[in-house]
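ARCHIVE CARD
SHELF: 3
SLOT: left
DATA:
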Amino acid sequence: MHTDTPPDPGSGAVNRPSAGGGANQTLALAAMLFAVSMTFIDQTIVAIAAPSITDELGLSSSGMQWVVNAYLLALAAFFALGGRLSDILGHRRVMLIGTLVFVVSSVLCGCVPKGEFAQTWLIIFRATQGLGAALMFPAALAVVVAVFPVERRGRALALFFGLSGALTAVGPLLGGWLTAWTWRAIFWVNVPIAVIALVLAAMAHIPETRRREKLDVPGAVLVAVGMGLSVLGFQQASSWGWSSVATWACIVGGLVVLAVFCRYELRVAEPLIKLSVFRDRAFTVDMLVLFFAMLAFVPVFFFASVYAQVSLSASPNQAALYLLYFFIGFGIASQWGGRILDRRGARPAMKLGTALGAVGFALWAYKLTDLEMHDQWPYAALAGAGIGLLLAPASTDAVNRSIGASYGEVTGITQTVRNYAAAIGIAVFGTILTHVTTDRVVETLTSKGVPAGAANDAARSVAEAVTGNPDAQEPTGGGRVATLMRDSMDAVRLDFAEANQWVFYGMAIALGIAYLCAHRHPGTRVTGDSPTEPSAQPGPGRRGADG
């Protein structure tokens, strides 16, 4: 349990303004919401437009997966660096720099030329988009934390996480509409949003705070290499195989580098991440809950969209509406989670959210093979409600436990954990989906009389079609094999739905593990400047955290 420790004058720390130092809190929150909404929208908008991107640029499906994951990987690799730079250079300044990097990268993504260099171009600038987001997000979150006093911070951050997260729903809807014009517009749409964010930030008169410390460059390199290598191994396991030396060299090598990073951070005088914050059991539990929840939260955008377009033969707009069921539950429950946090602490919200999420994903997985989009909405909404309930409480509780450390450092930790988990989730579940789809499709095609060689070729094409139009991936040619292939597509779509069941059951298991972790939370609350027991805060509606 933390005690209130005043900053050491010689440490370079600054006093936190109790009421925002004269900043307009409403405008500051609105500016940060507009800024970070771009990062959330871009997590889903590309999944909807992927078939059009693949067709026009002639990308390989593995290349398209890298376009999706390069963004998340850069977020994970550079988030701690973004949080640290925010402390050293100033939260407002780094937010502005990150926004500019993000929007310039977005424009360049939309301007990708056709030809052999298209795939490399798109992956590079998706990665720099992630770098911009990694600079922007921790700085924006630190601004919100700094301008709101602790007694109002719970609801402010609940609005920040809930509304910005709910804006992810705009990604599919906007993506479906813009793709009908040109898929390039899904990147260009970030320009007006960034302009609004920058104008509101200027009007809010946000005070600048900074810490005069050195940047831990070796630590930044180690964490980026460790996360990059490990995610590379998981991502490439679908093509390299789980028995490949290269696969395990990347995974194990990445984890070893991360272990070296942790050991180095404990010894350096001014580390990139102050790992001492993990001595707080509540903070550690918050991180574990976020890690396992994020294995499902971000990947579900991609896999649900792909399932809708492949197994349900949905258009991009219809797939967007399918995802909307999830976001309706998420948006409503996120505000409920903020109220529970303010009144009873993080533990009851995390326990309820993880339980509802596990049940929702399991029921959703069970219904996938019915191939009826509108029959699945209660389970998608339940899964979304579970994530919405736990996300803001776990994130806010972790941030509030940064007493003795800076908010930029702690938000860097929380968001690094979240995005690293999301990148791993995309990679691992993508590998599972590819292998299971391949096996099921081979069985289906051979049982219908397709020769084994053609069945294996077709199965690989269908498995790779998770980022494109499955019909466009069918083998060409005429005669009996082509006829059998066309006649088998209904069964193949069911095979793909069954493969997705493995993914969604995996997400349910991840939420189940998060539920077990939530039980380890001590139940203390952060009120004022120090954690307290829930029972120590009398008043209407305030009950014990065990509830």
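SLOT: right
DATA:
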Amino acid sequence: MEREGSRHDRARLPLFFLLLLAAGAGAHSRGAEWDGVVVTQADYQALRAIKHDLVDSLGVLRSWNDSGFGACSGGWAGIKCVKGQVIAVQLPWKGLGGRISEKIGQLQALRKLSLHDNHLTGAVPFSLGFLPYLRGVYLFNNRLSGTIPPSIGNCPLLQALDLSNNLLSGTIPPSLANSTKLLRLNLSFNTISGSIPSVVSRSASIAILALDHNNISGPIPASITKLGTLQILSLSHNQIGGTIPSDIGELSQLEELDLSFNAINGSLPSSLFNMSSLAVLDLEGNRLDGGIPENLSVLRNLSELNLKNNHLKGPIPSSIGNISSIDRLDLSENNFTGQIPASLVNLPNLTSFNVSYNNLSGAVPTDLSRRFNSSSFVGNLQLCGFSTSTPCPTNSPPPQAPPPSAGPSSRRRRHLSTKDIVLIAAGILLAILLLLCLVLLCCLIKKRAASKKKNGKPEKAGGGGISEKATASREVESSDIGGKLVHFDGPFVFTADDLLCATAEIMGKSAYGTAYKATLEDGNQVAVKRLREKMTKGQKEFEAEAGALGRIRHPNLLALRAYYLGPKGEKLLVFDYMAMGSLASFLHARGPETTVDWPTRMSIAVGVSRGLHHLHTQENIVHGNLTSTNILLDQRTVPHIADYGLSRLMTSSASTTVVATAGAIGYAAPELAKTKKPTAKTDVYSLGVVFLELLTGKSPSEGPNGEDLPQWVASIVKEEWTNEVFDLELMRETPTIGDELLNTLKLALHCVDPSPAARPDVEQVLRQLEEIKPEVAAGAKDDEPTEESPDE
């Protein structure tokens, strides 16, 4: 009966389509041209085999029916045809698992294969090399393993091959040299080994060559400099050695050169600085020595120069000041000597600058010390003027030469003068006064502690204090070996005793430690984070880093107001208390009667972007774990980013643990799974997820069928059901916000692009937000609280 029903269902189709179906079968048998509505029998069989090997958990391939009807007329998802032959299979972001069938080689007219951002396993099909018209292969962001099939070099029209972010191993097949029309080759984020084949450089048209984050070794082939059309060369995070080819300057169209984190040695070729189109030059983490060539004025488009962590020496060329386009300059952790050139103050776009840990000397140019904090200059023992603790010596007359003789007559001239005696006596008197003050202070502290004990001061409710160790330390603090409380600025002052006697309520736990809401005896409230003791650095390093964090101030960053070091190793950080809690609870834990309108959400997005922009450009800090949980709101819903810079207080192994934890909650960029190293671009990815939360009202773990939020949103947008993405609350508002929602959604999807290079930086994000809704952006800026009154 079921078969009869199926036959009747087909009979009820319009006669026109039934005739086309019949005509199609006859045409295939005769080898005639098709009209593009019915797929050929060979391609139909290939597609059925492809479907059989895929795991379709979302039902995307439900439209691939048994009859083949509709395959070439838009009825089959992801299939495009010409004259009945499949020319494109495009199914990205569909949650597909399983393997790619070798039967794909039967689609003889196939031009494009796009299955990126799925969960595919197995090997890259060898049969791809049997497709003479294949132009684009996009299989990135899957779990493909095995080696790159050498047969891929048999595709003479291949223009793009992107297999990045998979589990591929083996070497780069030399046969790729046969793909002379190749424009883009991206094999990054795999475990590919061996050397870079010199034959790869035979592709005269290649514009993008990305082999970063692999295990590639050997030198950079000299023949790579013959790629005259190359625009991006990314070889970072490999094991490449040798020197930079001396004639690399022949790459006249190169815009981005990233050789960071390799074992490259030798000096910087002078031709490297002759490329007028170069915008990004990143050589961090190598073994380069020698100096920087003096004449750098040819680099008129350079925006980022990163030479960090090498063995470079000599002076910093003053000609760097001629590169007006530069906005990021990092020369830290080298052996540079001499003074910082005054010409650097003439760089109008400079937003990130670091010369720390060199052998520089002299005074820091005043304009640079004003624009950048002390972390940009530390580690240069003879450098001065970059902070109040490193003043430059005032001009004074040179010291008088000592007497030429040391005989008896000169000894007689060494008797103390009356002035010397008066000064010595005054110094002794001052020391005695200071000692008396210290004794008096100790007596007052002991008297206060005894008074509290005598009055029977009770323990507070809600846990009895910050912790058992902190409570026990109150007795010790009263003695001469008590804990240490260091205050920064803030709306009110408290003692260590006030802090440790405060009523404490646990607000939450994270990889860094436990957070408390502490109510002081006078009723004021602060937030206290008790760090995990075994995860923090030693006391000396901890105090230095905490001191730097305590000086950071921005209206959208949670201010560190004080820290406490207990006698038994306890470490407490004290912050402003935010009355509205986290953005996560504000969005996802509110009652149905509470609504959050679009201007509020937009002002939060702008505020978070401003805070992150300040961290990246002014403090040189990558957050590494930006989530809606650590974005806190004050009573005016102004956002304050928390937990920034805490990795600097932790050991390196503890920081790695935090990154791993972040990856489990939906905010981590895909590359973090392999690199374990947060960057500004991974922060942008997390920011994009926060934007999607504001737009959809969903948390990152709420995507249907196990999808993460970016993947779910992208799949809905791909199917052109964009309105289903937005929170219903927003859709009920005035229709005029429609364009603003769409533009913000586009920006969010741009931020969560799987490719780090494709994501904008925070400055671009902020600029676009301000263009989308300038009045809200301006209002968010006007409503920001001042540092004197962080939260009413």
